[in-house]
Amino acid sequence: MLNQRKPNTKQIWQVWIFYMVISANRSEEKATTQVCPSCDATHFCDCSSMDLSTIPSGLTTDVTGLNLSYNSIEHVRENDLKLGVNLRVLLLQFNQVRTIDKDSFIFLGNLEHLDLSNNKLTHLSPIWFRHLFSLQQLNIQGNLYITLGENPLFSNLKNLRYLHLGNNNSFSAIQKQDFDGIVVLEQLEIDGQRLRKYESGSLATVNSINHIIININDVQVLSVILEDLINSAICIELRNIAFNTANESSLLEPMSRSIMKKLVLKNVLFTDESVIRVLNILVQAKQFLELQVDDSVLRGTGKWHGQIEVNRESAIEVITVQKLAIEQFYLFSDLHGVENLLGNITKTTVVNTNVFLVPCSISRHFSSLLYLDLSENLLADPNLEHSSCKGAWPLLQTFNLSQNTLGDLEMTGRSLSHLKHLTHLDISRNNFGEIPGLCQWPENLKYLNISGTQIPKLTTCIPQTLEVLDVSSNILNDFRLKLPHLKELYIAKNKLKTLPDAPFIPNLVALRISRNKLTSFFKEEFGSFRKMETLDAGDNNFICSCEFLSFIQYQEGIANVLANWPENYICDSPSSVRGQQVKAAQLSLFECHRTLAVSLICILVVLIILFIVILGYKLHVIWYMKMTWAWLQAKRKPRKSHNHDFCYDAFVSYSERDSEWVENLMVQELENAIPPFKLCLHKRDFVPGKWIVDNIIDSIEKSHKTLFVLSEHFVQSEWCKYELEFSHFRLFDEHNDAAILILLEPIEEQTIPKRFCKLRKIMNTKTYLEWPLDENQQQIFWKNLKTALKSYDVILG
């Protein structure tokens, strides 16, 4: 027996390492097969949100942009981007990047924008960026590094203009060499809520920063940074910081010596103690012009101690306050103490800040104010009247009062009527409703916005001086207001069914009437606006009639006037073109010339009817119809048995023109015979008042035989024809020979009308008696006729 040798530990490890290498190679080969197919005509490839674990293969030298954001890439390998020699934009944000090979970006000499934000990088290497000579924008925010590294990270990036760095979790120190090599920046953003160390002079090497965003909460560190920015930063933006006391605010003192022109405060907390100190520092900055406060909080009631000391040569000109939360705004005082700050301000915006009153004394101190925006606040008409007291805002040109609680248009106009320089007024999104017939307004008002104010009808309250009027989003049904100077009218989202009357607004240049109930407009309406340059009538329910389509599709130059043409101009009816663009809609000939088509159809119908009448006359259709009706009536009657008693021996059918022969010869001969024959004559025996057809049918049915006196006159008589037909019905329906033909005169067969087809048939199949002109033969004729009348089974041959 052979001894089995156990594998030693070294062999097991060798096998395991070999397996892991093979698995890694297979995994890498599989990863390299990932391809990004989404490249546009400009060779920008969007591979975002594709769950990629590596940079996909297939990158060519033509690619100029590559978006790999929102994937799961962990490693940027040395050869991943070797063909990206023409790459201008590389976006790798929101991945899991932990490792970047030192030569990963060596081929990207033309790269201008690199975004590595929100990854897992724990350290940064200057080797990555040493060949990125064209780089202008770099974002390395939101990673896990603590510092920017031991060596200058950006020293080779001579063209860098936009830099975003730091994080809010671990970034804690800025060192003096961190910004070496950077001379000019358009924008620098530092994210460092945990930043506790800043070496003085770190940013002093940067000669110019147009806009710096500092997101830190340590006021001490901020003060050191501001010291380095005294001679370089034009716009400073502070985020997420609190100034609770005057001492904390004093740490902003470096700003008073800076060249800063604008300060932006976002999500900053102030108190009554700190706000005056901050303002006194700012007004000392000789070039400082603009203050902007966004989404911030002021804890206090405005009871500030001390005055603002203003240097008239460097006073603030622009103040913007948006969404400033004043927790006890209803207790806020009259802003005493800030009056000295207001004199040089030319533009003020206070939006969404619960302003319900501007004290008259404060309004009067705005002696240079040109623009005032108090939109999205709580101003009501009585408070506006107080705020706009005599002497308030003497130079004001533009006033925005939209989305407040105004409700009396006449009172609003009267409150502002003393503002002689006011030209632009926005009082939209208030709740005016019905408006009076007369109002007072500033004498030079040119622009008025009263959109979204629930106005059902415009009156002469609207000032005649206007050049621009916005009445959109109301409930107007028409526009019949005379405004001789009006150049622009915005009346979208109302209920107008036609264009406004041009004679009322003769100088109109631009009209927006989209989203109304407009169904069409025509050459006369459109042409009446002689100065019209822009017409926006889209998003209406157009009735695409032939006249409308003919005008709008073929009117010269109309496409240059219509805004949003053709995509916003859609047919609502007729159903054949519903949903189609007006530009492409086509109607049928019938739809476009309905009157002509109906006329032609009517003429055609008349011609057909006339043709049928003529044809019926020629073919005796009416006669046949009458005959058919009579026959149907006769068929409805119950059939009589062969053995019933007859009232007459014979019914005589003859023409009225042959009555002399019938009545004077035949009747006398037969009724005076021995035994006498009883004949039925229509003159004598028909029932008065009864329909003649019924008389004929009844007489034939009550007679044993029917005598037909044939002549030229007979075949011209319709009633004779009826009698012949009914007799023929009886002949075939009752299967007997009831007809006796007497030929009073010779008749040529071709002279018998075609409608006498039965007569033709009977004459061809039965023997008839012929009236002889020879008197000797006449006795034989009477004998044969009497014999035929007596015969009940055989017709005389």
TrEMBL record:
GO BP term (any one): inflammatory response
InterPro entries: Cys-rich_flank_reg_C (IPR000483), Leu-rich_rpt (IPR001611), Leu-rich_rpt_typical-subtyp (IPR003591), LRR_dom_sf (IPR032675), TIR_dom (IPR000157), Toll-like_receptor (IPR017241), Toll_tir_struct_dom_sf (IPR035897)
The TIR domain, residue ranges: 646-789
Record's subcellular location: Membrane
SMART domains linked: LRR_BAC, LRR_TYP, LRRCT, TIR
Signal peptide: none
Stated family: Belongs to the Toll-like receptor family.
Name the UniProt record assigns to this protein: Toll-like receptor 2
Species, as recorded: Gopherus agassizii
